[in-house]
Design brief:
Largest sheet: 7 strands, mixed
Helix content: 25-40%
Number of strands: 18
GO molecular function, one term: oxidoreductase activity
Number of helices: 11
Domain Enoyl reductase (ER): 13-365
Bound molecules: zinc ion
Keywords: Metal-binding, Oxidoreductase, Zinc
CATH class of the largest domain: Alpha Beta
CATH topology of the largest domain: Quinone Oxidoreductase, Chain A, domain 1
Pfam families: ADH_N, ADH_zinc_N
Cofactor: Zn(2+)
CATH superfamily of the largest domain: Medium-chain alcohol dehydrogenases, catalytic domain
Length: 368
């Protein structure tokens, strides 16, 4: 049984602890991946802090990228040496999975936040007991992981794995929401609330779609500056002024064709809807904290043909969208490298703090 090093979450809200653990051999249909890099995403923080209850102790992390090191019995799609990006987990067999929407798999909560294999067991132990080691099917805050081959997406070897890692969740969420759900026509206008990893990925996709006005709204000046550097046409400070009024001014009173709430707070969701023009389409992405309620003016917020979509993982099939995004990165059209800040794996707690404060848009941990 190989010995690995992992960052273990043992207590709610406490710093992760680097520990040596034992990893089982990959089961049938699985591969063992040596992680080269992993992104940090908001869901890791809300799991560490038990806002979404994940069984502890656990190894978190769900934007892993690495190299296949061992192949389990009957695994057929991957070989030792393949470079892979790890996506979220899904059952492959429910109606929504079969329809091509694995982000809405009916087992999403169990398969991702349950942090265990479907049979309730874990591949990781510390010699005393099990450590939950299947967060999003991957638990990528570790030097090695066993994953089912359906969630390991083969990528070209000439692309850097540290830049590819965030394609597995944050970038896929932002890009997929634009490409798969909103589908703006060239010349459309879009407002994106929240200029973090998801919002800025959506901006890159909006640029590729030929949007004209691309308005980013955030409360951090550093992120507004980054938005403009990445091609936003306008950056609106959402902390004091009325963002909806400013968006209407920018669009000559009309409002925007498309809007994304990448924050997940009631007041932002309401502002996102109120910024839409008639027949506008808004999207709430990601995982809001449970229990938040929002009040709407039914004749205004959702009147005049307006629509709203609740989007998980960009409504994407990872085996389709990750290679497409990798191809766009190859041609220079999707500069994900401009979103990331690299940290050595040993500095994971600093990276988590920088993710929470907004100092880093997309922290990526590099394994030794
Ligand atoms: Zn399913
Ligand atoms: Zn995520």
């Amino acid at each position: 049984m190989p010995e690995i090093v992992a960052a273990v979450a043992r207590h709610s809200g406490a710093p992760l602890e680097l520990e040596s653990l034992f990893l089982e051999e990959p089961r049938a249909g699985q591969v063992r991946v040596r992680l080269v890099a992993t992104g940090i995403c908001h869901a890791d923080v809300i799991a560490r802090d038990q806002i979404y209850p994940v069984p502890l102790p656990a190894v978190l992390g769900h934007e892993g990228a690495g190299i296949v090191e061992a192949v389990g019995h009957s695994s057929s799609t991957l070989q030792v040496g393949d470079h892979v990006v790890l996506g979220f987990n899904y059952c492959q067999h429910c109606e929504t999975c079969l329809a091509g929407f694995p982000g809405n798999c009916i087992h999403t909560a169990q398969y991702n936040f349950g942090a265990l294999r479907p049979d309730g067991s874990s591949p990781l132990s510390d010699g005393h007991g099990a450590i939950a080691g299947s967060f999003f099917g991957q638990s990528s805050f570790a030097t090695h992981t066993n994953v089912s081959e359906h969630l390991a997406v083969k990528v070209p070897k000439d692309l850097a794995l540290d830049v590819l890692a965030p394609l597995g969740c944050g970038v896929m969420t932002g890009v997929g929401t634009v490409f798969n759900v909103l589908r703006p026509k060239p010349g459309s206008t879009i407002a994106i609330f929240g200029a973090g990893g998801v919002g800025l990925s959506a901006l890159l996709a909006a640029r590729l779609s030929g949007c004209s006005a691309m308005i980013l709204i955030d409360v951090l000046k550093s992120r507004l500056a980054k938005s403009l550097a990445l091609g936003a046409s306008h950056a609106v400070d959402g902390s004091g002024a009325n963002a909806v009024e400013l968006i209407r001014e920018i669009t000559q009173g009309r409002g925007v064709d498309f809007a994304i709430d990448a924050v997940g707070k009631p007041e932002v969701f309401r502002a996102m809807l109120d910024s839409l023009t008639v027949r506008g389409h808004g999207a709430l992405v990601g995982a809001p904290i449970p229990g938040q309620e929002v009040s709407l003016d039914l004749s205004q917020s959702l009147g005049a043909g307006r629509r709203v979509s609740m989007v998980l993982e960009g409504d994407a099939h990872p085996q389709l969208l990750i290679p497409q995004m990798a191809a766009l990165m190859s041609s220079g059209a999707l500069p994900v490298d401009k979103l990331i800040t690299r940290y050595p794996f040993g500095e994971i707690n600093r990276a988590l703090a920088d993710s929470l404060s907004g100092d880093a848009v997309k922290p990526v941990l590099i394994f030794p």
